[in-house]
Design a protein that fits this description.
Number of helices: 10
InterPro entries: AAA+_ATPase, ABC_transporter-like_ATP-bd, ABC_transporter-like_CS, ABC_transporter_ATP-binding, P-loop_NTPase
Largest sheet: 6 strands, mixed
Organism: Streptomyces lycii
Helix content: 25-40%
Subcellular location: Cell membrane
Bound molecules: adenosine-5'-triphosphate
Pfam family, one: ABC_tran
Strand order of the largest sheet: 5-6-7-3-8-9
Strand content: 25-35%
Order of helices and strands: EEEHEHEHHHEHEHEEHEEEHEH
Membrane topology: Peripheral membrane protein
Number of strands: 13
Radius of gyration: 23 Å
């Protein structure tokens, strides 16, 4: 049996005056899924999520969250954790008071101490929000997504301003939430984060869903690449390698393993050191760059 989607968006339109920011958008997020909604600037991601989160009414179309209208805050809010780009905690509250407030607003059960540990702010429990650093504020924003282990979590640019340790800690916490069964919706401009973690990606452009699928599905139509440089004394490399204007060699291939094998065999046979060797599947960046080219 296929379980009902957690989020069901059908033919959504969002207009601002005469401007159509979201046009005929449909997508679903399934229980336990990690879905990344990505897109070019001004694509309509925020407008879409504002409707899904219940902050904005759709101009037309249907949006259901847990089968309910997301504007019905009482039905949806207790099951949902939303980490906005700016949560807008009162600057005069302490960290501990802010986390306690999250508990009151969400009506979920948890302990402030547990949440402070997860977002690594226990040492700052008595500090006022106004005195937190940018990264600490961001971790406090994340507490809204953690408190009471909500069934559905929205993460809007969650790692912006976080150092690498805090990023790793945040993703570890997200992994744990997923193990508990939480569904995650991510928006980010850090494509690598989506590429590494998302089960599926929706790629928006100019108000519509330009592409949707797993990373493998999205990158399948573009070739993988191998790049390297050679010492000046090296003989000509295999013909698949094309010399670029900056002096590097590039192989674009749909048979990465085979072409890499040929290249490494050639280097070994000729006693040549391949310098700055990089080989990898197509990255999501390349899919983004191809938007607008067809
Ligand atoms: N309140 C508003 N009034 C008028 N136009 C708006 C309003 N909010 C957004 N827009 C426009 O709607 C379009 C989509 O905006 P939206 O913020 O949803 O895109 P986005 O995908 O989140 O963009 P970004 O990645 O740049 O944050 C943009 O062209 C934006 O200028």
């Amino acid at each position: 049996m296929i379980s009902a989607p957690v989020i069901d968006v059908e033919r959504l339109h969002v207009s601002y005056g005469g401007f159509h920011a979201v046009k005929d958008l449909s997508f679903q997020v399934r229980p336990g899924e990690f879905y990344a909604l990505l897109g070019t600037n001004g694509a309509g991601k925020t407008s879409t999520l504002e409707v899904v989160e219940g902050h904005r009414a759709a101009t037309s179309g249907t949006v259901r969250v847990f089968g309910q209208n997301p504007r019905d805050r009482r039905a949806v809010r207790p099951r949902t954790g939303i980490m906005l780009q700016e949560s807008g905690f009162s600057p005069d509250l302490t960290v501990k008071e802010s986390v306690r407030l999250i508990g009151k607003l969400t009506h979920r059960t948890d302990t402030v101490e547990r949440v402070l540990d997860i977002v690594d702010l226990r040492r700052k429990a008595g500090t006022r929000v106004s005195q937190l650093s940018g990264g600490e504020k961001r971790r406090l924003d994340f507490a809204t997504a953690v408190y009471g282990t909500p069934e559905l979590i929205f993460l809007d640019e969650p790692t912006t301003g976080l150092d690498i340790q805090s990023r790793d800690a945040l993703w570890d916490a997200v992994d744990k939430l997923r193990e508990e069964g939480s569904t995650v919706v991510l928006t980010t401009h850090y494509l690598e984060e989506a590429q590494q973690r998302a089960d599926r990606i929706g790629l928006m452009h100019q108000g519509t869903l330009h592409r949707e699928g797993t990373v493998a599905e999205l990158t399948r139509t573009l070739p993988a690449t191998v790049r390297f440089t050679l010492p000046v004394t090296a003989p000509a490399p295999p013909p698949q390698a094309v010399r670029q204007s900056d002096g590097t060699f590039l192989i674009e291939t749909f048979g990465l393993q085979k072409d890499l094998y040929v290249l490494l065999g050639w280097a070994h046979d000729h006693g040549v050191e391949l310098r700055e060797l990089e080989a990898g599947p197509t990255r999501l960046d390349d899919v983004f760059r191809s938007i607008g080219n067809g």
